[in-house]
Amino acid sequence: MLKELSAMIVVAAAGIGAAQQTAQAAEIIILASQGNISGARDLAAGFERASGHKVIARQERNVLDTVNAGTPADIVIANPPVIDDLIKQGKVVGRRVDFARAGIGVAIKAGAPKPDLSTTDAFVRMLRNAKSIGYSTVGSGLMAANIIQKLGLTEELKARTKFLDGFPAAEAVARGEVEIALQQINVILPVKGAELAGPLPAELQQYNHFAVGVLAVSKERDVATALASFMGAPENEALVRKSGLEPPAR
């Protein structure tokens, strides 16, 4: 009887060990975009260290297309209204978790003199003195265009403005295609050959907001939910700030 009991204990212990290994081996995929991949990767690394799970942050050309195609994944990052809409469609389950926002900055060629960006007047002088200006037609580029329009400079700068899509606008600065670029700060920082001159003046600054949701197609919903909570937790704000993002306004 004692031998049988000992055998049962060994089998039970082996089962617990196998379950723990299975839990530790969970692989979570985050669908991200150019605008938020930096924060996704830093938070993924933090969650990996804290939990033992593997997290892959994958940059998609069009996150919504990937979600709508039913591609296997666990977490999606998008603007809060987009996550809300995906919840209504049943493509995201649980609650929306706001985790970051991104301000706009000015990219200049590495080593170039940094322009004064302390006030709106200084920012306007920089734009008027720039030989060429670049920004995209989506995301922060739309915000930049809106700011320039509100300043009444759209027509004045039109001939010197270049629209840059498909790659970080700061890359065009690094290649010498434009003198300055307006883009999300976290997207400027990793670009070799360019550097951040500084953020826009506070009175002009606009933010792109990011939230996460757990995908209905996820096969690891419990772990994905834990990751979503981790990404939005105030105690993990240092990981959000690491790449130049900011925590959401609380």
Structure, explained:
The chain has 250 residues and is α/β, with parallel strands linked by helices. It has 2 domains: 2-101 and 209-241, D-Maltodextrin-Binding Protein, domain 2 (3-Layer(aba) Sandwich), CATH 3.40.190; 102-207, 3-Layer(aba) Sandwich (D-Maltodextrin-Binding Protein, domain 2), CATH 3.40.190.10. Helices cover 42% and strands 24% of the residues. Strands 1, 2, 3, 4, 5, 6, 7, 8 and 9 form a 9-stranded mixed sheet that branches.
The CATH architecture classification of the largest domain is: 3-Layer(aba) Sandwich
Average pLDDT over all residues: 91
CATH class (first level) name of the largest domain = Alpha Beta
> Which ranges are low-confidence, i.e. pLDDT below 50, for 5 or more consecutive residues?
1-23
Q: How many β-strand runs?
A: 9
List keywords for this structure.
D-Maltodextrin-Binding Protein, domain 2, nine-stranded mixed β-sheet, alpha/beta, 250 residues, 2 domains, 24% strand, 11 helices, disordered N terminus, elongated
Question: What's the short story on this structure?
Answer:
The protein has 250 residues and is of the alpha/beta class. The protein has 11 helices and 9 strands.
